[in-house]
Amino acid sequence: MLTPLHKHVLLTGFLDVESRLKQMEALLVQGTRRYPLNEYVGDLSPTETKVVADYFARIRSTMQTCLEKHHIPIEVRPTSLRWAVQCGMTMLDVALADLGPKRLQGYGSIDEAGRQEVQSIQQELTRLTDRVSAYLSERLGHDLPERLARLEAAPGSVAMLSLLNLVVMRWQLVEFRPALDTIVQRLESPQYEIAVFGRVSSGKSSLLNHIAGMDILPVGVTPVTAVPTRLVRGDSSSALVYCAETNPRRIDPDDLVEYASEEKNPGNYKHVTGIIVALPSPRLREGVVLVDTPGIGSLATSGSEETFAYLPRCDLSVVLINAGSNLNDDDLTLLRALYEAGITAQVLLSKADLLKPADRQRVLQYVGEQLRRGLNLELTVHPVSIVGQDAALLDAWFEREIEPLWERHRTLVEKSLHRKIAGLRESVIAVLKTLLAKRRGTYLRNYDGAALKMVERLLDDADAAIERTEAGRRKWSADATAMVAAIVQDAAKALVESSRQGGSTGSSPVGQVVQQTFVQIGQTAREIIINLQRTLIRILESLAKTAPLAAADTASIRNAALAGLPVVDLTPLLANCDCTIPHWAITLPGTAPWMARRIVKNRLAAQLEQYVRLYNTQLQVWLRDTIAQLVEPYRSQAEVFREQLRRMTTLEAESGETADTAQLVADLRELEQAGVTCMT
Ligand SMILES: Nc1nc2c(ncn2[C@@H]2O[C@H](COP(=O)(O)OP(=O)(O)O)[C@@H](O)[C@H]2O)c(=O)[nH]1
Ligand SMILES: [Mg+2]
Description:
alpha/beta, binds magnesium ion
């Protein structure tokens, strides 16, 4: 029904549709953001957006059905998303480099205050992009269980903390300051912190009240608790409220709602920074703190940020998933952040009383499955509740999973803090590596003119190779008639030879020649591509070696789908290849070749030409697409190198860079070394 060529055209069209859908989806997401630099007005209602998205899904499934029905192989080249984002970050960096005071100077002189202002904006933005690059290159978020095991295996020591402190100060890695301070503080007064996390209204405060055995934390359907609230063991009930500007204030625990609720303290206008509640509850222990967090998700507004800011501080997390709603991205983001910070989680299905026992089992399984799929984490989900008989579930969980920790809380805090130090070390190393790579990038300009020339030459070589290949493709189908003549010639020769040897054995000699020729034509096209592929890979690898700032990803070029080389069905043609030469002609010298040529030509030439033309067209389309598949990923990478080249030749060198870079290398080495000594 559909020829291979038709199918190919369909597939190409579908891929185009897909990429347009993706573009529009990105717009739809942008439209929902209120942000001055956003160029789209979000004039689609949430319902409209949803309906559009649903139709997109249907368009996709229709295309998929068509592909399956017609057995159209999907030759989509997989490209590493990590790499694409890394590349994007490099380009961001390049854009930011253009915002420096030296550049602005070109648009009119700039005074010292202006210079400093611009520099600090540039530095702040660069710091952030560096963090993203470092994060991606270290694969921190890649395999959570593995990360936890690694931190466990190489715990950080207190000595490492002072080294980290030194490095953070020297390189002004201000973003690590809070984490460092927290760890130091906590080393001074070690307390084991168990924090309860979850979306607003998942039942966090209710759960802690039930555990404490008193209604101490405000509970409500509207978002409450704008800051983390700590519960500790005390001789009597009391509460301390810490505010930004004033000394801590002792309050009646019944008045907590005045400070810890959005209604009474909207937007935290009272600037509460922390609340500690002491309770004479037998379930609390000296040295252990239970923490109620503001909650995450869309309802939490500012509370979400507070929660994530607090998160790295705790030692064990209890994450509530509301049985009455589905697990969503907020929950997964939270768990991911916890595991990245090296903190284990107890996952609870709260409000289990809302589900019938049969449904409960199903939901537990579903949540477990989602965690496995979304985060690669094997976690047991415990159902809990504070209502009626089901409250026994919560008590049982607490007695089984939490109370046994009381005994060991001292060792647990110590282990947890060491894990945090090790985690911090990993992150600092990642940032230093990024800094170093950038410096080495600028190195080239100053110290290695030969390397710069090399980059330039490699880029030119690649362009030439691409141009040669393109020229080969354009010429491809130039002369079908000549090709047919050549085939006829070869086929006639084979026919004569076979007749002289007493006739064919099995398949026809003419058919064999025809078949071989078509295979050869295909092979030639394939070789053109393979040559280009090899050249581009080689050049990218050399580029990456010469200019270490940008990473090269040859995988997308290596894995480009070269398998789709078109084939023609020659059956009707081959059926026609059964030619023979009259017996008398074979014996007459000089006659046989001439006669064979005539026979083959008369019988096959017209049909052959049709086939050759068809195959040529198919191959040309294939060549065009496959070249594009190779050239696109190459070009996008080459762009990065070219930018680098441009920067190196235009930007001025920073003064004193050599000594600076040597120090950076030394710090990096010392930090890495410190990890090794810890492990042994
Ligand atoms: N049915 C049921 N409702 C609960 C349970 N725990 C909490 N709730 C209700 O859920 C709502 C939110 O609880 P709250 O503790 O304030 O949630 P938070 O925002 O996570 O602290 C309140 O109306 C509670 O009464 C439970 O185990 N079962
Ligand atoms: Mg609450």
